[in-house]
Amino acid sequence: MELVQNIPFFSIMLSMFSGTISSVLPGRTARWVNTLMLSVVSAMSACLLLYMVSYEGGSYSYRMGHFPAPWGNELRVGVLEAGMALFFSIIMLLSLLGGRKKLDGEVEHSKHNIYYILCNLLLSSLLALVYTNDLFTAYVFVEINTIAACGLIMIRQNGRCIEAAVRYMIMSLLGSGLLLMGICMLYDLTGHLLMENIQQQVSSIMAAGTYRIPMLITIGIMTVGLAIKSALFPFHSWVPDAYGYSTVSSGAILSSLVSKGYIFLLFKIIYRVFGFRAFALTHILGLLFVFGLCGMIFGSVSAIWEKDIRRMIAFSSVAQIGYIYMGLGLGTEAGVVAAIFHVLTHGATKSLLFVSAIGLTDVSGGSRSFFELTGSGYRNKVAGVGFLVASLSMVGIPMFSGFVSKLLFAEAAVLVPNWKLLPTLIVLAISTILNAIYFLKTVIRIYTHMDAETVREKGYFCLKFPEQKLYCVTIVLFILVNLILGMASQPIIALIEQGLRNFA
Fold first, then answer.
1. Does residue 469 lie within any of the structural domains?
2. Does residue 442 lie in a domain region?
3. For residue 347, what are the CA distances in angstroms to 87, 119, 180, 469?
4. How distant, in Å, are the alpha carbons of 43, 52, 62, 142 from that of 7?
């Protein structure tokens, strides 16, 4: 085996090791260890992606310790896994850099090392969910992900954060319980835990017609479990508080990465365990499609009425997750490609929105009220530009990644020769209009002039580049990622299509 093929294992172990050593380090040192680890993992993931693009076999797998399941874990790597690992590590790095200055005011200094321990564990769990080919190992890292995410929500230790963490934990444990129940039932039916072996047994069961009902129940239970954990409507009640009241970096990471890790695991299970065609015959895709459409509308309407800018962004996440499940529910490869591309779009754009929003609130007396943000785009020009770019992307303006996502969804809907065509196009249009209402009204608000006397009375101030160099660099890099996704989308789409073929 070539050295580059060991990168998935090294990436997972490095992030876990960084979390371990951070427990005995002071906060500042733990921060630099975290930054170095994320940079190294990003670089290794980029090397792996370049290697996989030219890899003749398409994908490869290897067992940890050469032990068969259930005693050993198998990792599987293709171009899609390598790309998602690179994306997750880059977005987490930028999210932490963007909220670094604010962390001192949000979290006690004595707990900074704990914060970075949780971030490191979260990254290791996300990488494991991307690479694992073993359902039991996937469940173990789902729980690690849940614990780390819960810790990131409640680390501020105020009433709203603790309440949000409790609500998140209740819903997450419900989803995890259903997932574990489904895995146990699947093991009882097939006698395997490795995804490839399970798929062979599932195909035999579905072809023979024996145990078909238990298999359908198993598929439904696992799908519902991951849908709950990824905050699909109507299981989204924890989202506004969890995203809205956690730290800036935590909100960006939770919205852009955590839920996407569960969604990517669901994609893997659909393709690698059940088979996409067999899964489509269960009519579960139709239910995901309907709930996805409902989430698109409900999340957008709720965002319009929300006056807290961070909770508004959180409700927007509910709508965007609806987009992803709607694409999956179309039941075609084009729909899945659109859904995976939207995972990238939402991850890059939502993090930019959270990081930009904190820059706007800092120059508005710390208030997150929509009305107090008047003129904040002038007082913090970099944050204003970042919020503008992210808003235009979410609305679907050409040149940005959101436009490509909505175009892919529309094209996928046109290719569907059934009843899903018209609802998809109608809800896409309605959702786009609603997105424009709450995002553009916020943009107009932050670029509405406030007279100098009022600024002095309220005690507002301006922030310039020399005072926030790292923050400005982070915003620029986020914008660059968004532009790459929007203007160089074809190679990325081609990689997604290649990855799905390897899945199958």
1. yes
2. yes
3. 9, 16, 27, 23
4. 10, 12, 12, 21
What is the C-alpha radius of gyration for the chain, rounded to an integer number of angstroms?
22
Contact 486, 400 (CB under 8 A): yes
Where in the sequence is the domain holding 418, given as residue range(s)?
283-504
pLDDT at 456: 67
Q: Residue 469, exposed/middle/buried by CB under 10 A (0-12, 13-18, 19+)?
A: exposed
What total of structural domains would you count in the chain? 1
Q: Specify if 333 maps to a domain.
A: yes
Those residues whose C-beta lies under 8 Å from the C-beta of residue 359, and which sit 6 or more positions away, are 380, 382, 383, 386, 463, 468, 471, 475
- Greatest Cα-to-Cα distance within the chain, rounded to the nearest angstrom: 79
pTM value is: 0.90
Q: What does the alpha-carbon distance between residue 270 and residue 217 come to, in Å, rounded to a whole number? A: 14
Spatial neighbors of 43 by CB under 8 A, at least 6 apart, are none
d(CA 142, CA 146): 6
Confidence at residue 453, expressed as pLDDT on a 0 to 100 scale: 66
Q: Is residue 255 part of a domain?
A: no
Give the rounded percent of residues in the chain with a pLDDT score beyond 90. Answer: 6
